[in-house]
Amino acid sequence: MKVTDVFRDANANLWRSKLRSILTILAIFVGSFTIILNSAINAGVNDFIDKQIENMGGEGYLEMMPTETYDQLAALMGNGGVQEYTEDKDVSNASPYIKDEQVEQARALEGMKSFHALPSATADFATSDKIEKRYRINLNAIVPGINIDMSAGAAPDTSDDAPYEIALTEDMAKALGYENPADSVGQIIKIAVPSTLKCYTVTHRSDCQVIVEAKIAGTQAPGILAMGGSRANITLWNRINEINFEGMPDGANHTFQAVADVEPDKIDEIKTKLEEIGLSAMSVDDEVGMIRVFFDAILIVFNIFGGIALVAASIGIINTLFMAVQERTKEIGLDKALGMSNGKVFLSFSAEAIMLGFWGSIFGIAASIIAGNAANIVAHETFLKDFPTFKLTVFEPLTMISIAFIIMFIAFLAGTLPARRASKKNPIDALRYE
């Protein structure tokens, strides 16, 4: 008898007791549906995070600030824990900026491909010729090594002599009068920049503001990076910083943050060395990886429920096949009397168990794909409407096939006990069975 004939007959035998087989398949379906859908959500989250890491400069992108400042921020956010006071490390009097010697030491580290020290830069608002209103604008710098996922246009020019350019968020572009992101590309906006020292001497803040015109290079696609605000190129950033600190004494203008592009395989080593010189560094994976950890924790819980469902289904398989062995005792005796070996009897019942796992996993895959695609549509119309590139579920064929084979293997293991019992039956006793 061919293997294909064994599985064909096993599939036919399943439907001798339709209700019992359907209930067993349904139990397998619940477990497979849960596990496959969870794996699709996990793949969707990881795909989104991986894209964000790539868009923010890849695995070698680092953001740095003084360790003391980082500790203060962590404490304020409740993540720093209780810290012991020591006179040699009084964080209240710690330097909040990156010193020149730290910049030079960081630049000299092996594996450091590029290093950019960023002084502070603050703007009050932005406006355009298309509107009369003024909107507060949150600015961040874009330096060489950072990639931006653009919905329209291109990333700002990051060369040292580039004209003033900016990449707006889609919300800011819309607020400034550009309904379609593509309409904003190449347009000029006005940014009000305060001269900090002068602002202390005037009655109206408008009297201490300098208007800087910048070209919109493009608009950023919604994502983790875009949540940081609009991105000014380094020439615009330096101009805003220059206005902010106009008239202040030397030494007042400090570097509060730095970004670097490093060799990915040396990132842990470089982070350790930066700690030694007083700088705390965070990679993109450190920042957005918290999302991955959060989802992983939730999905582990759901996978446990899926595993419990499969355990229950395995008990159902054992019960189904024991009943089948009991009902077909005379048939087993006749087959053995006609020359069927113990191994073939074992194989025939094991094949039935595998077919139960097969149908349960197939229905689970089909239902999870339907539910996952529906979830994607609903998510993009509701809570993920600001993240069009975030697919809540991503179904990977290899993963689904692997899960199906694992479920069939579990079904095979569950069926070995009743299959062994069938194969060991004495043909004479089986033929006498009533």
In brief:
The chain is built from 14 helices and 12 strands. By secondary structure, the protein is of the alpha+beta class. A hairpin with a 6-residue loop joins β3 and β4 (135-136).
What does the model show?
The chain is of the alpha+beta class and 434 residues long. The chain has two domains: 3-53 and 291-432, no CATH class; 60-283, no CATH class. The protein has helices at residues 3-14, 18-55, 67-76, 100-107, 170-175, 181-184, 196-199, 234-244, 267-276, 284-327, 329-337, 342-381, 397-423, 427-432, and strands spanning 61-66, 112-119, 125-128, 135-136, 139-142, 150-153, 165-169, 188-194, 209-220, 230-233, 255-262, 279-283. The strands form two sheets. Strands 3, 4, 5, 6, 7, 8, 9 and 10 form an eight-stranded mixed β-sheet that branches. A four-stranded antiparallel β-sheet has the order 2-11-1-12. Helix 1 (3-14) crosses helix 12 (342-381), helix 2 (18-55) runs antiparallel to helix 10 (284-327) and helix 2 packs across helix 12 (342-381). The protein is elongated, with a radius of gyration of 33 Å.
Write the topology of this structure.
Layout: H1 3-14, H2 18-55, E1 61-66, H3 67-76, H4 100-107, E2 112-119, E3 125-128, E4 135-136, E5 139-142, E6 150-153, E7 165-169, H5 170-175, H6 181-184, E8 188-194, H7 196-199, E9 209-220, E10 230-233, H8 234-244, E11 255-262, H9 267-276, E12 279-283, H10 284-327, H11 329-337, H12 342-381, H13 397-423, H14 427-432
Parallel strand pairs: 5-10, 7-9
Antiparallel strand pairs: 1-11, 1-12, 2-11, 3-4, 3-8, 6-9, 7-10, 8-9
